[in-house]
Write a structure and sequence with these properties.
With 259 residues, this protein is an alpha+beta fold. The protein has 2 domains: 86 residues, Phosphorylase Kinase, domain 1 (2-Layer Sandwich); 166 residues, Aminoglycoside 3'-phosphotransferase, Chain: A, domain 2 (Alpha-Beta Complex). α4 packs across α7. It starts with a helix and ends with a helix. The mean pLDDT is 95.
């Protein structure tokens, strides 16, 4: 851990005994479980400068009080010495299993529904979902726009189950205000990438409170946007095989919806 960051958080943690890094792959970021005199805390930090991960970490701090206990509690935040850091309660949890027939699947859908049922907090009102704009014509952007608080990265390591069998949704680095179609659609591609049949994925999602309210045309349009975005990422990083798998899943989901 960077010495300046260590000095910044020590007044919150007490003298630090142990730092267990949690790999995220961000060169300008640090994630670790820190054990100090005051106990254990999960620290997420980034360099305090524009152009890096700063806005993501700031958003995670801002949204945490509005998540109704779905995410680990934010205990503190500090800024200084060139860093911005958040300290969260530590949970001992496992990733959910997205494979066909997994007993976790109904709970994954329930977690999504719990997010969708949260009131949109005032702090999230400016966070308009526009990440897929580049993959759609301007007159199709309305497919993305809406007033649902949205977590669009619901992969198995972000919906986790702790040792008391409680489900948590973690990594709120980029919550947005979006249309209802965004969250189940992005989850669908994750489920298909876990080698599930798209028709079975739709049956699972149909058990959610969201699904019955979705327009089929909007689903198809957004599914095509996902194909285009995943194709863009595979071209940027051709050596990362998991991106190719996500592109294949997006194609399969789009093809299924068009039937």
């Amino acid at each position: 851990m960077d010495q300046r960051l260590r000095e910044l958080i020590t007044p919150r943690t007490g003298p630090i005994v142990q730092v267990e890094p949690v790999a995220r792959g961000y060169s300008a970021s640090a994630t670790a479980v820190v054990t100090g005199e005051c106990g254990r805390v999960f620290v997420k930090a980034t360099l305090d400068r524009l152009g890096g991960r700063l806005e993501e970490v700031e958003r995670e701090g801002l949204i945490n009080p509005h998540l109704g206990g779905l995410a680990p509690e934010l205990l503190w935040e500090v800024r200084g010495r060139g860093w911005f850091a958040l300290g969260f309660e530590v949970i001992d949890a496992r990733p959910t299993d997205y494979s066909a027939g997994s007993p976790d699947l109904p709970r994954v859908v329930e977690a999504m529904d719990r997010i969708a049922a949260l009131p949109l907090p005032r702090v999230a009102e400016p966070w308009v979902e526009d990440r897929w704009d580049r993959a759609l014509a301007e007159d199709e952007w309305s497919v993305l726009r809406g007033n649902h608080l949205t977590h669009a990265d619901l992969h198995p390591r972000n919906i986790v189950v702790d040792t008391d069998d409680r489900v948590w949704v973690v990594d709120w680095a980029w919550p947005t205000r979006a249309a209802a179609v965004v969250m189940p659609s992005t989850l669908a591609v994750q489920l298909v990438s876990a080698e599930q049949d798209p028709a079975e994925v739709e049956k699972l999602l149909a058990t959610s409170a969201l699904w019955g309210r979705l327009d089929r045309g909007a689903l198809v349009t957004f599914a095509l946007a996902q194909v285009r975005m995943h194709r863009h990422y595979t071209r940027l990083r051709p050596d990362e095989r998991w991106l190719e798998a996500m592109l294949d899943a997006a194609k399969a989901w789009h093809a299924h919806l068009k039937l």
